[in-house]
Amino acid sequence: MANAQEVYRQMEAWSRETALLSSTIGVLGWDQRVMMPPRAAPHRANQIALLSGMVHQRMTDPRVGEWLAILETSELTADPESVEAVNIRQWRRTYDRMTKLPNELVVEFARVTSLAEKAWEEARAQSSYALFKPHLSRIVELTREIAARLGYEKEPYDALLDEYEQGMTAQQVEQLFAPLRQKTPELVQQIRSAPRQPNSSILHRHYPRPQQEAFCQLIAERIGFDWQSGRLDPTVHPFATRLGPGDVRITTRYYEDFLSPSLFGTIHELGHALYELGLPEEHFGTPMGESVSLGVHESQSRMWENFVGRSHAFWEHFYPLAQQYFTALQDVSLDEFVFAINEVKPSPIRVEADEVTYNLHILLRFELELALVRGDLQVDDLPDAWNERFESYLGFRPANDAEGVLQDVHWSGGLIGYFPTYTLGNLYAAQLFEAATRDLGDLPAMFRKGEFAPLLEWLREKIHRQGKRYTPSQLIERITGLPPSAEPLLRYFERKFGALYFHADGSE
Ligand code: ZN
Questions:
Q1: How much is the pTM?
Q2: Out of 212, 234, 464, 496, which could bridge 460 as a Cys pair, Cβ 3.0 to 4.6 Å?
Q3: What is the per-residue pLDDT across 105-136, written as a single tens digit (0 to 9) for each?
Q4: Left if phi > 0, otherwise alpha if psi is -120 to 50, otherwise beta: which for 183?
Q5: How far is the CA of 238 from the centre of ligand 1 (A)?
Q6: Known catalytic residue: 269?
Q7: Under CATH, what is the fold of the domain 170-502?
């Protein structure tokens, strides 16, 4: 019988080498989205396809199953929180997910979604759901087959959600989201009929791009971004990606007639980047060196973007500088600016939504995709279901399908079960921010002085350095003392937007 320690070392080397290959694909992908000239596309697709095939082959190598069988019965798994036990557990999870799906199904899904993405672009441009419908039907069909192959206890959706938020079920998400569904539409109503309203037109004055670039760099740096370990570049669709230890790339977009996208896009992606930079480098290439889940990842970006970056205290520190960078802000007071960047205003488009209405967009998508996967809703009836539910949550119907059911790329790419992680991120962020306040004291007082290191250090210790040691729910409960809940987010909304909209002096 093989020595478990030896097998473990072999498997660790296999895992790290696979990560070297994957991160090389990451470099090619970053270049493709940020730098690559258009004519390079076919060659780049070949490069990525070749390397992806190599990664897939390594991940499904039958030796992996043999190694795992030895490791799982060894003393290495005795303490479930040890580095070895965590890695073995997560290697098993990935291996099972990859080997449970027959190759023909994987290939067919890739073919169908690739065609669907093209059809979706066309359908959205023409606002024609009919063009996208047959593709979506096929995707839902295949997704149900994938869920059946992966296996689940209660319902197919659980198998899909587990991919992005390990251990979370549809039922748990429904329970977590219920208070938001109950209270948010009324809160939005109150806010919209409040006597004070912000003047958001000040954000649409002329903001020269060079100044925006310099100001975004300044903010990123002061929060804690290290230019020796990362870059900030412009793209159409902002994202963050880690290419390896000491190399995290973020992007943002600039509009000269709208200040918010570059600023808050930068801070949002910075939040993702700080998480990736805080992962333990010595575990790179193994699950212990990876982030927990999409929801927890989003909690980091949302915390920096909204809880820090849209707070009054943050701008008490940065606003005098902003006024130096942007002449357009010289006649705008600090309070006017903070009110404008926090305007609550229902929009048909999810990515343009404010903090409060954003979760209603997610709720709607979650409920519809859950019904599609269950078979309770037919693809034919999706646009009507979308519009009806949208009206009941946000008070009006989208003007057309391009502004409604066709607005997101996710479903065309086969990402069903992904949307809930956005709102989970908001819930976790609020709960973690309360815990950080309890541990560290007056955070706004620190932000006012430009001190972000205490919060960043706290996040590093509690979350970033833990890698995949716990499931998302376990992690939240360990840090905050309570399982995930919507209450902290609702408390935060009442306090923050109550102060902005209902107290003339903006006090909380
Ligand atoms: Zn994000």
A1: 0.95
A2: 464
A3: 998 999 999 899 999 999 999 999 999 999 99
A4: alpha
A5: 9
A6: yes
A7: Neurolysin; domain 3 (1.10.1370)
